[in-house]
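for ur thesis appendix - thioredoxin-dependent peroxiredoxin. copy paste whatever u need, i formatted it the way the template wanted (i think)
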Amino acid sequence: MAQLKAGDRAPAFTLKDQDGREVSLADFKARKLLLYFYPKADTPGCTTQACSVRDAMEELAEAGAVAVGISPDQPARQKKFDDTYGLGFPLLSDPDHAVAQAYGAWGEKSMYGKTYQGIIRSSFLIDETGRILQASYKVKPQDTVPNARRTLG
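the 3d part is after this line
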């Protein structure tokens, strides 16, 4: 799928969180949503990204926003990640990467000369009506929150 841009409708989703509960995009109507995709729980970059979101939760709430992370990890791994770092926001399991594909966050990557398919670290700020306010692809872990902050004003 092509990459999303500001003004596009955010693709709907329903996935299980770290506690096995179903979470849908529709659950966040009337609030802004910082939605980000990360490759694998409890790896250095993903930990940096998740902890920066955790540390900005109060600031996001003041701007009327909440956060959700999505990776291909199973809920049990997401739960361990949440418990280890006290993240306190939904971490959703997308094992078949269908939601990542819908958001343009699944694609070709390369490491050590090998190419493979995987999560393209991405973040999206979605408004109360389900429209994309800001989309960042190949985002650095430490830039997820500053990108959202700029858009939120």
